[in-house]
Queue: 2 jobs
Job 1
Amino acid sequence: GIQVEQSPPDLILQEGANSTLRCNFSDSVNNLQWFHQNPWGQLINLFYIPSGTKQNGRLSATTVATERYSLLYISSSQTTDSGVYFCAVSSGTYKYIFGTGTRLKVLA
Amino acid sequence: GAGVSQSPSNKVTEKGKDVELRCDPISGHTALYWYRQSLGQGLEFLIYFQGNSAPDKSGLPSDRFSAERTGGSVSTLTIQRTQQEDSAVYLCASRFLAGGRNEQFFGPGTRLTVL
């Protein structure tokens, strides 16, 4: 099955800094989502992005499907950005495979 | 409702007891997933329902786990004779599928603690 790797596993930032999170996948996919799991455990949809680039406020994401990776950019980070960021992919089926996540802590 | 809801939000039970967890998906979403997340870990697929099709139960860890979905809407996940290793957060997601867009939306989860 598809393998999903996320990097870095852990990240600590000062408030205001920018960061890039990466998601690599081992096979072609036709669905990809980025989620933020907040400290209370709620998984929040950030982007549905099987290809291309999207932006939503301080967040943007780019998926290069032919090269099997996706990037999540966080600009001007805030303490509320803390939590775990997951990417999840699926390939022609309903079953999503989740990465192990990037744990982000933003310091005030 | 506006989003996926789950109940209870927290459940503490004694080893050997049965528990039932409930998920109410977004209205109109025909697909529903259950996942399990152990502390500090990623999401583990448990079961998938789509309309009236037979569910994909391939992720259920043992025969103590079962799930049903009534009327294509509300789903219940039942764990019989709970064990301490069942302690985890159980997450439900419903899926929006239209125009090739396959997007999951998650509920807040049920935190299960087995003493």
Note: The first strand of chain B starts at residue 5 and ends at 7.
Job 2
Amino acid sequence: DAGITQSPRHKVTETGTPVTLRCHQTENHRYMYWYRQDPGHGLRLIHYSYGVKDTDKGEVSDGYSVSRSKTEDFLLTLESATSSQTSVYFCAISESPAGTWSNQPQHFGDGTRLSIL
Amino acid sequence: LAKTTQPISMDSYEGQEVNITCSHNNIATNDYITWYQQFPSQGPRFIIQGYKTKVTNEVASLFIPADRKSSTLSLPRVSLSDTAVYYCLVGDTQDMRFGAGTRLTVKP
């Protein structure tokens, strides 16, 4: 399996508090992604990164920010958590752009379960 | 924007072949079609990927018609351990859309 570690694996916090989730990879892949998974919605892309300090928004980016200061780490921050952000968050990596001519699939971590009360 | 539609659930029995179809009417010219499998409390795991016609690997086949508006994942001779949620994914990095997934239940 691809070397992807998400931390923490579980977190419970209160509305209005800042939260940072970390994704760490040992594969030296250029692309990294953050998804959220909610019942009935499958996985939805929040943000992705195509290199150090290079990020872009996905389908559901409102309320989230990301940073990538090193190839191996991609951080997802909820500046002021809301109950609607209770979800399971997955990080993924790929060698080159997912879904394009490069034919590179994404590899996923095992997720972070975040509950916001 | 590419969007996928899959059946919500399917049941099968051990040893049978299972076909799961995904509809993606707005697929773009350069989009690949990728299928993932997900077990509870785990991240999705790559199964197979294709662009057109048929692709086969050691675990599945993927059939894509000429118009590419749909694709069918074929799992030969399923076992109980194939019980999982299966997702098709279409789109490029900036517009990747997972479907809601198909929950496959394999019965003994």
Note: The two ends of chain A are 34 Å apart (CA to CA).
